Amino acid sequence: MMFTACSSNNDDPTPSPSEKYVWSEDGGFKACDHVLFTDNGQEAPKGNVIGNGDQNFVFKGNQSLERGTYLLKGWVYVADGATLTIPAGTVIKGDKDTKAALIVEPGGKLIANGTATDPIVFTSEQAAGSRRPGDWGGLIICGKAPNNNGVLAQQIEGGPRTKHGGTDANDNSGSLQYVRIEFAGYPFKKDQEINGLTLGSVGAGTTIDHVQVSYSNDDSFEWFGGTVNCKHLIAFHGWDDDFDTDNGFSGKVQYGLSVRDSRIADASQSNGFESDNNASGSTAEPYTTATFSNITFLGPKTFDASFTNDKTYINGGGINPENGSSTGLFQAAMHIRRNSRLNVNNTLAIGWPIGLILDNEKGNTQGAATNGQMKLNGITFVGMDIVGSDFNKVYKDELYDYTTKTTDATKPSFTSNFFQLAANQNTVVGNWMAQTWNGIASILAISKQYPGIGAFPDGQDWTAGWANFDPQNAQY
Ligand SMILES: [Ca+2]
Ligand SMILES: [Ca+2]
Ligand SMILES: [Ca+2]
C-alpha cells in the first residue's frame, strides 16, 4: 500500500478552517458531526483523539478516519444515523481514566474492516508489560433486531446510556472484520461490566468475522438478543465467560476458539458458554436459541498440569488489575440455564472442571433438552473432572431434584445422562496430558488430534496474520 506523507499524517492537530464542526446536544450530552479532537478537546480534523474528552460524547456525523494510531476518550456514542469508518491497520487505544468505550447505538454504524495481514486493533494505552484486563471499557454494538425484552427497552450492560432492540431481524450495524480487542472490560459496578465485545440486539445484516478478544476483564463476547451471525471468533485469556448469550440471541456462530489462562477466573465462576433466556429464566420470547458450531474450548488444564481449582491458585496470574473485579473458580465448558435453548454442534472442549451444566434452578432448560428444543450434538469432552452437573457451583456428577432440593448421590446427573445419550453422538475422553503452551502451534497440534470438530476441523489456520496470542508484549 502507498500513501503520501500528508494523507497518512494524523499527528498534525492544526484545524483546517474549511472543516467546520457542527455541534448540537443529545440527551444532555454534547454531540458533534466530527469525531476527532486534540488531546485537550480542541476541534482537530486530523487530531488523534476520538471524542472530545467528555465522559459522554455523541458522534452524529459520517466520517472515515485515516489509517493511524488514536486515543479513544470517554464513552463515544455512534448515534442513530451516524457512521464511523476505521481503516485497516489502525490502532485505537482506550483511555484508562475515562474507562473509554465505543458504543454503536441502534441505527448507527461502525465499519471496521481490517484484513488478514492488517488488522484493526483496539487495545490498552499502557506500555508493553504493564497492560491489565480492564484498562479501558470495550466495544459495544447495539441494534434494532429482536430481543425478549422489547423495542428499545433493554438497557445495555456496563454503564453507557444506550437502549437496544427492535423488530428488524436483518438490521445492519456495520461490519467488524479482522479486529482485535485487548485488555478491555471495565467493571463499572458489580455484575455491570463492559465486556470485550458486547452485542445488543445486533441484526443479521451486520458482518462480524475474525474478531479476537484478549484479556477482557469480563466476558470476552456477550450477546443480548439479536440475530447476527458471527464467524471466526477468538476468546483469549478472558476473565469471566468466553461466549455469553442472553435475552433471545438467535444467531449462528461458527468457528470459535477459547483459550483460558489457568490463573484467571471470575468470582461469578468462569464458563466457556454461559447461556440464559433471561435473568429470571422466564418464557419470554424469542428464546435464546443461538447455534454454535465448530467451537474449541481449551480450558485451564489444557496447558497446565498443576492447575488447581482454588482461590489460592487462581490469583490473576500476575496481571490482576485490582480494580474491583475479583477472582473466583473455573466451572464448566458449557453452563446452560434459565430457560436457554442453546444449540451446540461439532465442538471440542478440553480440560475444564465440568463439561456441561444443564441448570434448572430457574426455568426449564432440562425439559427443553428432553423435548428436542435444544440440541447438543457431535461434542467431544476431553479430560473433564466430571462430565456433567445439574446445579450451579456443585462440582459433583449427581442427580439433583429441583422440587425437593436434594441430591441423589447414587445416580449420575441428568446432565451427564443427557449428554451421553447415543442419539446425541457426543464423546467423552477421560484422560488429558497437559501440553506445553506454544501459541497457535500448540493449538493446531491439539486440534489435529480431534479432526472434523472444533475451531480447526480441517487444520486450516484462520488465525494467521491478524490474531495475536501475546498482546502484553506487542508494540503499538
Ligand atoms: Ca457480561
Ligand atoms: Ca457472564
Ligand atoms: Ca460467569
Automatic annotation (TrEMBL):
Give the residue ranges for region: Disordered: 1-20
Q: Which domain of life is it from?
A: Bacteria
Q: What is this protein called?
A: T9SS C-terminal target domain-containing protein
Instruction: State the organism of origin.
Output: Hallella faecis
